[in-house]
Design brief:
The protein is of the alpha/beta class. It is built from ten helices and twelve strands. The protein is 33% helix and 25% strand. The longest helix is centred in the first third of the chain and has 15 residues. The chain starts with 16 loop residues before the first strand and ends in a 19-residue tail after the last helix.
Amino acid sequence: MAGTRQPWHDDAAPRAIRFGIAVADTMGSIVGSPTGTSPASGQHQAFCDALAAATGIPVVPTSYSDYRSLLAAINEVEIDLAWLPPVLALRTASAGRTLPVALPVRGGVAWYSSALFAPTGSPIASVGQLRGARVAWVDRQSTSGYLVIRAWLRSQNINPDTTFSTESFHGSHTAVVEAVLGGAADVGACYAHVDWDTMMVTSAGWGSARVQVVALAGPIPADVLAASVGLPVAAIRLVQHTLVSAPTADLLRAAAALMDASGFVAAESEHMSPLMELLKHLDDGGRRVLSIYPPSR
């Protein structure tokens, strides 16, 4: 609870939690690592102050110019908590460097999926009919518009490099939908929100347009707050409890300003495992992967 503040252990005062973000990649502005300032620095500080007040543990903001620098800091245990895009969060977790703690909620959802779709009435109704098709992607760094659906195809023994006759990149989910519906591509990849209990798409990048879903991959967390394995377990549990179950009004305001989040949900392993299983099939190749927030529901 917000009023229940516990030290990490009874016989020592807690040291500060160092909370790192990649400002250039998440906010679109460049800062020096780790001492630069930017329009995001005030929101970063406010979030740290609010988290510190809610947990009783000092929280120190640390900003990096890109995810490469942030990941180096994680590897050197120079930070304790990091805001990461999903692929990088799960790569650091699979390497034993971090533990996913909480997922920001936007528009009522913390998850989305990657969909491969075609116009209604297309002869392409399943992945077995993809050979020779023209495919439209968002860009090579897009989680839902490129990386995840290609990894899922590989997991089904379908090689996207040889299956499609042509590949085109359109820069946005909207442009991919326009390419498919306008006949410039046979299939396209974009985000979708899915009710996994019913396997029904509740909203997607194609809006109200009539399409048929060829394949779905997910769920995918939009982004992740991950804790370093060097952070004591008691501190990790306290941070997770505070974010998920007992956020103060100040903390919620700070999360909205910094992350455009209305709250947080716990990063449960059963929800993370589908993307974790696809990691070996991803062709991100160590490129600079952005945190891509699909539009809300």
